[in-house]
Write a structure and sequence with these properties.
Layout (H helix, E strand, L loop, with lengths): L1 E4 L5 E3 L9 E5 L2 E2 L23 E4 L2 H11 L5 E4 L10 H4 L1 H11 L4 E5 L8 H7 L4 E6 L5 H7 L6 H13 L3 E6 L10 H13 L4 E4 L3 E2 L2 H14 L3 H9 L4 E2 L4 H14 L21
């Protein structure tokens, strides 16, 4: 179900840019997500989204963004894509993300988009304009296998489409890479999968890959994930319960070995494991760190 809502505030602010993604201002134009990834942490109780299958559209988001950016004294990276995908299918018609990018370009703020969708290619004109300051697009890819991606991320374009979109953005001169997270224990935690993601990212023009060799599991997120394991991977739920119990952070048993392989292959292909970031400054001149 899609519902329209009115928001009071659009951007949440961090005192310092976060060390993984360089984000100072977080922007969510929607609540809920049509991609319905089986592992999504945003289902957790702490985020207060009653039904994650419902998508709430912030109809006044663009007006709020204009007002809030006009008051910002510090230019910092605006990030979107952590709580939901800014390019979920609904965006094709609603165009909230596109209109937000136009405002961001007008105010000359930097942006970092995290997505699983090739719909981002629609907005490469705006991303190229923003990249004069700073623009990065990170594609979340946790498996190189399209059939597996379709099972665990049923509403999102498959991994091959994300790699193709990455190639197109890189060819357009836009900074792009991979958020390789989460790596699902007993499903994606193979050496072959990690090598395949790194190799295909290199071929697609990625500059960086940001890894996390673990997943989170808590309250409603865990309950939903386990229901999907029962449906898609019969018998695997019991293995999770035995291995992790009620633990929040769930790393594959071979996580250290996977990380060694990952870093070796990134070195081989000259891929960074930390993205170049825009440092928040009050001056107009961008600073990369």
């Amino acid at each position: 179900m899609i519902k329209n809502i009115t928001a009071r505030v659009l951007l949440s602010t961090s005192k310092h840019p976060d060390p993984w993604f360089g984000i100072k201002y977080t922007m969510n134009l929607y609540r809920g997500c049509q991609h319905q990834c089986i592992y999504c942490d945003s289902r957790s109780e702490c985020y207060r989204i009653e039904n994650f299958a419902d998508v709430l559209v912030k109809t006044n988001a663009i007006d709020l963004l204009q007002k809030e950016l006009a008051r910002k004294r510090v230019k910092g990276t605006i990030g979107t894509g952590s709580m939901n995908d800014p390019y979920q299918p609904l965006e094709a018609a609603r165009e909230l993300t596109r209109r937000a990018l136009q405002v961001i370009a007008d105010y000359q703020f930097p942006v970092h988009i995290i997505t699983k969708s090739d719909l981002v290619l629609r907005d490469r004109d705006l991303l190229r304009a923003i990249s004069r300051v700073y623009a990065a697009v990170s594609f979340t890819i946790t498996t190189a296998d399209d059939a597996l991606a379709k099972k665990i991320e049923p509403g999102a374009p498959v991994s091959s489409k994300r790699f193709a979109a990455m190639r197109a953005l890189a060819d357009a001169g836009i900074l792009t890479g991979v958020t390789m997270m989460p790596i699902l224990p007993f499903i994606e935690d193979t050496e072959e999968n990690i090598r395949a993601i790194v190799e295909r990212a290199r071929d697609a023009g990625a500059t960086y890959i940001i890894p996390a060799f673990a997943m989170t599991l808590r309250d409603r997120q865990r309950a939903y994930y386990y229901r999907q394991l029962d449906r898609l991977f019969p018998g695997l739920r019991e293995k999770y319960e035995q291995q992790y119990g009620e633990r929040y952070g769930c790393a594959p048993p071979n996580a250290k070995q996977l990380e060694r392989i990952f870093r070796d292959w990134c070195t081989r292909f000259n891929l960074a494991t930390r993205m170049p970031m825009y440092a928040s400054v009050s001056a107009k001149q961008p600073m990369l760190i």
